[in-house]
Structures are given as structure tokens and as C-alpha cells.
Amino acid sequence: MNTKEKLELAIDHLSEVGYFVWDNFVSQDNVKKLVAIANQGSQSGVFKKAGIGKQALFQLDKGIRGDYIQWLDRNNQSEIVQDFLNEIELLKTSLNENCYLGLKDFETHFAIYPEHTFYKRHVDRFQQNAHRVISFVLYLNENWQEGHGGELALYFDDKDEKIQPVAGRLLLFRSELEHEVLMSYRKRYSITGWMLDKDMSLTFLP
Length: 206
Ligand SMILES: O=C(O)CCC(=O)C(=O)O
Ligand SMILES: [Fe+2]
What we know:
Elements: H1 3-16, E1 19-22, H2 28-43, E2 48-49, E3 68-72, H3 79-99, E4 105-113, E5 117-122, E6 132-139, E7 152-155, E8 160-163, E9 170-174, E10 178-184, E11 188-196
Antiparallel strand pairs: 1-9, 2-3, 3-4, 4-11, 5-10, 6-9, 6-11, 7-8, 7-10
Bound molecules: 2-oxoglutaric acid and fe (ii) ion.
The site of fe (ii) ion has 4 residues, from loops.
Cofactor: L-ascorbate
Protein name: SM-20-related protein
InterPro entries: HIF_prolyl_hydroxylases, Oxoglu/Fe-dep_dioxygenase_dom, Pro_4_hyd_alph, Pro_4_hyd_alph_FE2OG_OXY
């Protein structure tokens, strides 16, 4: 299947079932490079404990989420990170062209979940964060196996789905869907982000 066909499938699935799994979105070679960059960042102290809520409502709570994050943007020095941002930009453009979602921007970060951490059931689009429309997660776990945990559970009215966080896989889902990162028994790597219906510099506005 070529990229155009894959895109059409992604668009269909996002509108009909609310999510789409895109395997090998990033090559295994590039996964290795991204993990190396995340490890460097983590060792040099640029990863911070992730919180919940925004601005004044921001709080840290290990009982809710246990990951460490590093925000990624156009100032990032790594070519491979820039390539990934470009891919997401293209994806955003074609979602707009085909689904009229009015996506204006996106925000994204590396996430590392240490062993025995999780992110409890939540939605990404909520009162204080109403501009997230499509969530995306690129998984970077080489040799991930059943039993390592860290699956993403997606909750629908009539069913649950568990997505394995395997290397190179991009998961797309509607940000209002309830989801949860189940307990990870291994260190778990990913790049998580959100496509927004407002420019990032303006998301503090209603
Ligand atoms: O890493 C994942 O599978 C999802 C992460 C997530 O739900 C979030 O950061 O909001
Ligand atoms: Fe989430």
C-alpha cells in the first residue's frame, strides 16, 4: 500500500471508528536514532516530570501519570526530529484537505515512562485544553513483547481496544476519546502530540 492509500485509510478510520494504527510510519533505523536522542536528553536533564492541566491548573501527580517529557519544536537541533515534525505537518495538511478539521498547528513531546508507570484513564481534549482535535503517538519500543505492558487502552461505548506500543507504529485518535496507558513493566519510549484547531501561541484563549 502506498502512502496515499494509507492516508485515505487513516482518514476513513478516523472518521468512522475514531482511531487508526499506522505501522512502520517511521523506519526501525530512525526509531533507533530517536531513542538515542531521547536517552541523551534524559541523561542531560532536559526531560521533566509530566503534569496534568495547563498553566494555573497545572499539577504533578504520580498517581495519575508517571512519565517524563521533553517538548519538541522547530528549535530542536536534530535532523531526525525535524523530519518527524515535517511528516506530521504533511499529515495535518492532508487531514485538513480531506476532513475539514480546521487543524492549525500541533504540539508534541518525547515521553519516557520508567518501569512500573502508567497514565490513568483520561481524555486529551478537556475544558482547559479544548483545542486538541487529533492525538498522535509514535511508539519507539524495539523488541516490545506481550507482557512488557504499556499498551494504550482506548475506550469506546461498546468495546475497548488495546494498542501495543511497538517501534515505528503511529497511533492516531480523536482527542475526546477516553484512553489509558496501562502499567509498563519496561522503560517505555514514545513521541506524543496533538493537532490543534488554534495556533499554539493562542491556545490560552478560549
Ligand atoms: O503514550 C501513549 O500511548 C498515550 C499517552 C497519552 O495518553 C498522553 O500523553 O496524553
Ligand atoms: Fe492522552
